[in-house]
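For the sake of transparency, this paper describes our internal protein records without simplification. An entry from our holdings is shown next, in its original layout:
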Amino acid sequence: MSHYYSKNPNVPLKTKTIEVFIRGQYFKFITASGVFSFGKYDEGTRLLVENAILERDWRVLDLGCGYGAIGIVISKFVDYVVMTDINRRAVSIAKKNLKINNVKNAEVRWGNLYEPIKGEKFHSIITNPPVHAGKEVLREIVINAPKHLYDGGLLQLVIRTNQGAKFIKALMEQTFNDVRELAKGSGYRVYAGIA
């Protein structure tokens, strides 16, 4: 069985281009089969991106970037974005989307979770985590985030209220100095953990 968090999705490649207006700007994205949120801009991602705390001089990690729905938008508001994904098709499509949206201050790297950014630190890690990959993956994302954040840095994530929000919030409260709910709506919650 192939999932969007597989290294090499085994579903035939289909693409669909979408246009999105978010944070006051228009974006165009190629979406692809075998990559999260084919043919649409995910509602949880939208809630996260619209409510994310961003500062101009920040270096940000988009963890599990998919086709680039988070990283490309936030690249317009921060200094630099590193986007990573385990899915090779996602990485390929995200690189195309960087070009389409004329993004010069971001790069896409292939690899599992934090492997592609060993030894690097960020002001924020922003992710719509792969809930269906299981609790161990979610745990790894949360508990290893502080190692890759500057002091006072933020892990910002979105989670479905009925698909692990309590689990994630409790895990974040064990891991971070402070946890805040930035937004909720459409069955999702956006949390920020401060390192």
